[in-house]
Structure formats: C-alpha cells, structure tokens
Amino acid sequence: MRQGVRFGAYAVLGLVAFVTVGSWTGLAPQGGGMLLLIGAVAVLSAVGGAWLRSRRAAELTAWAAATGWTFAPRDPGLGLAALQTGRPFGQGRSRTVTEVLTGTYEGLSAVSFTYTWTTGSGDERREHEVHVVALRLPAHLPTLEVTAEGVGARVAKAFGARDLQLESAAFNAAYRVDAPDARTAHAILHPRTLERLLRPDALGVAWRIEGTWITSWETGATDTARIAPRLGVLAAVVRGVPRHVWQDHGYDPARDDVARGT
Predict the structure, then answer these.
(1) Do residues 133 and 234 touch, judged by C-beta distance below 8 A?
(2) Is 34 helix (H, G, I), strand (E, B) or coil?
(3) Of 30, 65, 181, 236, whose CB neighbour count within 10 A is largest?
(4) CB 109 within 8 A of CB 235
(5) How far is CA 139 from the centre of its chain?
(6) Domain map of the chain by residue range?
(7) What are φ and ψ of residue 72, in 5° steps?
(8) 185 and 210 in contact (C-beta within 8 Å)?
(9) Beta bridge partners of residue 130, listed in sequence order
(10) What is the pTM (predicted TM-score) of this model?
(11) 133 close to 215: Cβ distance less than 8 angstroms
(12) Three-state SS across 130-153?
C-alpha cells in the first residue's frame, strides 16, 4: 500500500535531514553509528508500514460489517485484475488488487477494490492507483465506455478515437462515448439516462459496460464514502437499459419480476 511507502519516505527524509544538520554541527554519527541509524530507520519504516496497513484493514473491516459486505485484503480468487480489458485494466505490469469489498447493491452483486499497476523504469517508473467499483450484469452486453470530456479525450479523438454523438448537446459536451455497437449504445443512452448522467453526482464519473460487468474508476485508493454514490450512478444506468436490449442478449427482466412476485 502507498501508505507504507509514504511512511518509509518520511522516515528516509527525516534521516537525510538529521545527517545534514548533524554534518553542519559536527553531531552526525560516523561509521558503525551511521549503519545502526540506517538500520533503525529501516525497521521503523517496516513497523510503521505494517501498522498503517493494519489500521486501514480494521477501518475497512468495520465498514464492511456495518454495511453487510465482506472485506478481504487481497483478491480472494475473483480474478479482479482481469475484470475487463479496457482501462484501467490491462496496462503496465505488476498489477495488483487490494482492499477488496464485496456485497450487493440494489439486488446486483457488487465489488469495490484498489487496483495498482506500474509503468516505466528507472527515473520514469510510476505507480498508478485507482479505486474501482463494479456491478455484475444479468447478461453479457456489448462494450460501451463513457468518460468525461477533457484534454485526454480530445487528443484521443484527434488520433481517430470514437466519440458517439447523442441527442443531448449538453451530454455530448460533457462526455466522450466509445462504443463499437452504436445501435445498442443509442438504445442504452436514451434521453432519461442522459438526463440522469448530467446530474451533479454523476458528472465526471467514468464508467464502462464490458461483458457481464459495469465498472467505474477514480484515481486514488479505496474511499468508502464514494462507493455508494458511484454504485448509484452505475445502478441507474443498469435500471435504464431497455427490456428489448436485454432480450437481444438472452435475458428478460420480466421473468425476474415474476419470480420475485413484483
């Protein structure tokens, strides 16, 4: 976890500051004393990192207990690092899944986790971290990705990336839509769903339907305060999928309604 890395970085900075000031005052340790000091900082970093991880795990365990979800420090065999093929998945190397929370949301299986990967090497080495939330869909649907407009989207479009234009000028200005199956994308992104995605809680939320999952991702580690709001946006998209789209892909929500007696 990055908390442990940050703790170690602070410890190293403290050591550097101590040695620098010590060299000015003549109080800096020499020889074996310096080695002992470096060893002490290494131990402090390891202990501090372990303590931060333990505290974080306790916080997430408490959140899971309060919401009826389940917490696991790492992927419990769900294959979450390969949940989808589109970004942020499939990038870089050393892909890891931590802080896994699983449960249900509006009757659908739901998951939240921290996903990290590394790119570059040497001075260009970078670790990337995002908080992913996802809902399992009742059927496989064609890929549909909706992301906020911005510099990255404009650059991508300049190099030929898709941007499906819809009926709402406000939506087209706020989002980029990438969908190989334009017909299905238009059916899913009908006026009521477009209006929902322009509300303040949804603006800027990136999401993608791919296979049997709809996912959303944001930069940073797991933020439990953001799980329900983001799942609410995803659930609104799922609720808005027309019945004929589900039927075209082998699922009829009316059968589930009958089974539930609704």
Answers:
(1) yes
(2) helix
(3) 236
(4) no
(5) 22
(6) 2-67, 70-260
(7) -135, 135
(8) no
(9) 115, 219
(10) 0.79
(11) yes
(12) EEEEEEEEEEEEEEEEEEECCHHH
